[in-house]
Each structure stands twice: as structure tokens, then as C-alpha cells.
Amino acid sequence: MLKELEAKLKDTEKQFEKKLANLRSEIQGKIILHSYFINSMFSILIMSYFHATPQGSRVAFGASISNVGNIGPFNTEITLLYRNVYFNSGSFNPATGIFTAPVRGVYYFSFSGHNISSRPMGLRLMKNGEQMVTVYNHAAGNRHETATNGMTLQLAAGDQVYMRLRANTWIYDNNNNHSTFIGHLLFKANKTTRPPPGSQASMFSLLCIILQKIWKTRGMITPTGKPACQPLTTPTDSFITTGIFTAPVRGVYYFSFSGHNISTRPMGLRLMKNGEQMVTVYNHAAGNRYETATNGMTLQLAAGDQVYMRLRPDTWIFDNVNNHSTFIGHLLFPLLRQAYAELLGKLYF
């Protein structure tokens, strides 16, 4: 009797082991199938987000004033012409100095102006007749000076962006091309999409949603009981209240900053990443004039890394309605392989 029970027990164990092996094989097959499906969807998304069509998607220009010497001063403002064109996808008109947005999207613009300091230089970045940001070099001595600023702007198709020279100021350029104006499309957008098309937040949110649907339709539970992925949101509101940019995905980002000060006291600015200084500007105290300093850097960030600006002790910074002091940043490209591995790690483990 005991031998019969032992035999039945061994037979049951063998059947159980066989079923367990089959179950493992089935689960492994599902995981492979899911991984293949996710990889396919990931490739499709990458193609749609990063391989834009030439028509209306690849927008950029770069130009300098060219070898003209001094322009100004005039008793009224003028629109500056940048005739030495390095690259133009077609939306910048060097005859008028005006860039016209071909598609709704988020664009980046930057400008530098050079002048002889016996007279002031005042430059304004304009959008549809409204000033966005400015630089102003006050008259002081007789030396050559350069000032730079820039801004990220959301434009509708047909919006116009251009540079204005303030009344009673001047700007200088020669064959060294000191005075420049550049702009390019970062990503297209529409009125209803949040995050906008081309943002990595929307891509990774969609992958999360795909995985959730796979688990549900295949009768699988979410690994480790983790809650469903939530769509990522843009960090705009948090940045406004804290001054801190938090990277939504692993990637390579570009940051730039400009600071304006009255030179009776120094100005010291530090671009920080997770508490560590990356680059800096420092205007030493000298006389009693307004000065601008600019710097920037390309940084590799992991999701959650934080970038922000710090003002050094015993220094100051100035701004007013002309928006001299600025801080900008944008994603150049995601590190796809690493970001994909991070995503799967969060979802499966």
C-alpha cells in the first residue's frame, strides 16, 4: 500500500514538474513576444518622432550681419538685416531680416551683438512686434564689446521673429562675423497635445500604456504589483515655482543663461547639475555701468537629474521688463538604448 502511494506521489510530482516546465515555457514565450512587440513599437515611435520629413519639419537658419562696419545710430528703431547666411532651410529672409515660422512648434533663437563702447548697443529679439528678450551695452570708454542672449519660443505657423536695433544705439560687424542671429525648430506642436509631439515624455507614456494593455489582455498582472504607468507631464509649473529643471528622460540636453548687472558690484552665476557646478560667469566690479554675461553647456542627464542656476554670495543680478537675464534648456536627443533599458527596468522589476 505504501509503495503504491509512493509511486502515485512520484507520478504526480513528474506531472507537476512537466506542467511547471510548460508554464515556464509559455511565460517565457509571452515575454519574448511582448519584448518583440515593444521593440517594434519603440522603433515605430522613434521613426515617427526623430525622422521628420523635410517639408516643414527641418527648420533652421544661421546668419551674421557681414562686413559692414558700424550700423547706426539712428533716431528711430530699425530691423537688422543679416546678409551673410551660413544655413537657411528657407524660412529666413535675409533681405528683410525676418524669420517666418512654417509650422506650429517650439523654436530656439539666439543672437550676439558687437559694438564699440563709445556709444551704447541695444538689441531686441521680437515676435510679431512684441519684445521677447534684449541686450543693452551702455556707453563706457572706447573698447569692443559683445553681448549675447536667446530664448525658446512657441510659435504658430506664420509668426515672425526678427531683431531690432534700438534708437540712438549702434552695432558693429566685420569679416570676423561677431554679430549673429540663429534659430531652429526644436519640435512641432499643436493646440491640444500635451506633452507636444516630439517630446520624449509622450513617447515613454505611450510605451507604458501599451505594456499595461498587454498585461491586461493576456491575463497577466502588473509585475511586482506596481501601479499602472502615468503619463509624464511637462515640468513647466514646477520650474516656475522652484527654478529647477528636472530631466523627464535620459538624454543629452543643452542649457544657456545670460545675466545682467550694474557693475558697482560683481555678478557671479553658476549652472548647477545635482549640486555640482558645471560652468559659470563672473563679472567683476568695475565702474558704474550695465553689463551682460552669457554661457552655456551641453549636458548628459539621467531621468530625474536636476539643473538650475545659483547666484554666488556677495554678488547680484538685475532684470526688468526688458528681460535681460534668462535661462533656457532643451532636449537635443534621448539616449535611446539606456532610456529604453530604464523603462523596462521600471516596468518589469
UniProtKB/TrEMBL annotation:
Localization in the cell: Secreted
Keywords noted in UniProt: Membrane, Secreted, Signal, Transmembrane, Transmembrane helix
Membrane-spanning parts: 31-50
Keyword presence, Ribonucleoprotein: no
Entries under InterPro entries matching the protein: C1q_dom, Cerebellin_Synaptic_Org, Tumour_necrosis_fac-like_dom
Domain C1q: 54-192, 196-338
UniProt superkingdom: Eukaryota
GO cellular component: extracellular region
Name by which UniProt lists this protein: C1q domain-containing protein
Gene source species: Astatotilapia calliptera (Eastern happy)
